[in-house]
Amino acid sequence: MDRHIKAPLDREEVKTLHAGDYVYITGTIYTARDAAHLRMSQALDRGEKLPIELDRNVIYYMGPTPAREGRPIGSAGPTTASRMDKYAPRLLDLGLTGMIGKGKRKPEVTEAIVRNGAVFFAAVGGAGALLSKCIKKAEVIAYDDLGTEAIRKLEVEDFPVIVVIDSQGRNLYEEVCK
Amino acid sequence: MVRSVNVELLTENIREMCIQANHFLAPDMDRAMREAHEKETRPLAKQILGQLLENLEIAGEDMIPICQDTGMAVVFLKVGQDVHFEGGSVEDAVNEGVRRGYEEGYLRKSVVGDPLLRVNTKDNTPAIIHYEIVPGDKVEILVAPKGFGSENMSKIYMLKPADGVEGVKEAIINTVREAGPNACPPVVVGVGIGGTFEKAAILAKKALTREIGIHSELPHIRELEEELLAKVNEIGLGPAGLGGDTTALAVNINTYATHIAGLPVAVNICCHVNRHIARTI
To answer: What is the largest CA-CA distance in chain A?
Structure first.
């Protein structure tokens, strides 16, 4: 089923999403991948405040190519989500409602998704040029020195994703493979 | 007769080739993607393949890299033994080409200088360079930027001779199955069978650069390529790993002599953005 949703993403809305739904996201999301997750995790260990608010927010596992003049961002497709598995349960427990990436997640992540009523979306890997067209604004808001791995705030419009793990724990990847 | 080649020629060609490869899919890959879209029977899979074709169009028209992972630059240099390079070091010239290509082409700098300290080199160097010395006075440059979503799902198996061809098939199918959605299917599967540990890996990497649809000249390997492509597609992973007929576009196998005690098999997976471009100077 095709759905249009807003980000930040409410838990009530998340409950209505089901594995296999084709979803268009409009609103504000944040990017973070390997190095930014490590820094956020270290910041939490030291008891510091994170550079982004997690509650009701969506993190997109993505590191873009540099933007050409006059464009908000370069190529911007998803990276492999499993590399963030080590950090994801903690962020979900702190209020994160959605993650966008590609590929399988560990059982601990699925458990945290169910426990918190969150959702994991897949964006189509290798469609970075197409996906960049749905990003209207991009601004580095933390860890600038990490270059492509910095945390960016994105304004997206009808950003296409597919629900892979829903809040009930149903997993589309597990259903397709023979 | 010795022919002099200025290394600046390597730099300039590699600069252009890095930019070209990251914005325009090679004609064989483009054709394979279109055929897959045509043939795919699952609606969601067809829709995803359609998105990927649209992505290729946008990339070329607007000069946005096909994928944000513009890869680590793998460069194969086949150097004629009658060539004399002048004007500096070949390695420096190749890296300078990569540096300029990634900077001027707005490509992502995805290389860290030390695998444990992990500080980005900010210019995507160093490249991975493979040299081969061949007869003649030409230089063949092959640039194949490699993304790591699929590189991470690649494997090497040191099988025993008793494992035989069945063991080889199992290794290849299991690698694709385990790679699942992470490797961004539809994938191209590059396989190296034989040689030593490192030879098998290089054979597999090189197999990824072979034109889609061109099979091994060895009849038994050709047969194996066709059988494995069918078997891999039976897994049903499909585009983006969300189900479908198209899990792989090709299984390309290269072989080499090996030791009486061994049967190395390297499986190098590449996503559908299988970038490769060759020039001869």
So the answer is: 46
